Prior knowledge:
Number of domains: 1
CATH architecture: 3-Layer(aba) Sandwich
CATH topology: Rossmann fold
Radius of gyration: 18 Å
CATH class: Alpha Beta
Mean pLDDT: 96
Number of strands: 8
Strand content: 5-15%
Bound molecules: NADP nicotinamide-adenine-dinucleotide phosphate
Amino acid sequence: MAELTQSRFGKKGWTPERIKDLSGRVYVVTGANTGAGFQATKILLRKGAEVVMLNRNESKSNQAIADLKDELGADAKVSFIQMGLGVLASVRRAAKEVINTVPRIDAMICNAAVAQVAQQVLTPDGFESQLGINHYGHFLLISLLFHQVEQAKGRIVVVGSEGYKMGLKTIQFADMNFDKNYHPNITYCHSKLAQIMTGYELQRRIKAANKEVQVYVCHPGASKTSLINKDAPLMTRIMFSLMAVSPMVQSAEKGSYPEVMCATEDGLKLQAYYGPTGRMNWVGPVGECNLEPFALDEKIAAKLWEVSESETGQKFEL
Ligand SMILES: NC(=O)c1ccc[n+]([C@@H]2O[C@H](COP(=O)([O-])OP(=O)(O)OC[C@H]3O[C@@H](n4cnc5c(N)ncnc54)[C@H](OP(=O)(O)O)[C@@H]3O)[C@@H](O)[C@H]2O)c1
């Protein structure tokens, strides 16, 4: 499968050279002030698009906008709306602002995340932070902005992680907050699996409802970003900083290619999983990666959908 997609994009895999002029298109990117989200924003702006960043930190966002305008010119169409994914009320407020101020959404890239949080931390809504920010926050945001995406016959891009297959490989409904078995990495992997499974469940629901929204699921491989930060256990930080200077880890820019591809490339397959296809899927040409069958488990995904609706207090109407 990977070979097929790779050959479609040539030996180098998908690269931004394939993107045509994006003038008039509008992209919403979560967590775009740094890392892969920042790089994705830059690529989209370079192609003439408008990008609205949904970030949690105002001063980092202003700096990111200043940096982008320095590099691309003062007329780069980039703006930001404050949104903390770990606070449901903040997601609701930001979604309202998007609905009121953003003319169309050609793609919403669900990129923001926290990872490897050393200790169990609860969000103000009472969710374990990695699940609360990565999954519930995005679930609510997608639900609230679905009709804006639909109006533009647009796309939703779920940024997952190869970690989806390094954890429990299922959803731990009996203890979603990991009160009994919290583990920085396993709990992160659980949150990324929840995001990925929800992406495929959304594809199925869109098909059943006969709607014209595309959902694509991807991952950035292993990329040099600020994801492993002061919140991660010391050993994880040391390990990642050593790996980051090796060829096993690629640049943040390359890490953004899969999400940009999913937001812009036509004719991508659904029920597929896109990212770097080289060593361990951490680096290398961007194309289609192998997808483990448990990520497509329809029963678990349907139950997760119900739990997510109930926990966020948001009925997801398609
Ligand atoms: N880098 C990798 O090797 C790797 C591997 C697998 C998957 N991924 C995935 O790739 C995506 C991008 O991550 P990255 O590596 O670029 O990490 P990053 O550099 O740490 O960027 C993450 C972004 O998410 C934002 N964010 C974090 N918590 C948030 C919250 N509560 N509300 C709103 N925004 C929040 C961050 O904002 P602040 O700057 O304010 O913290 C930042 O803008 C994530 O989905 C991650 O899971 C990355």
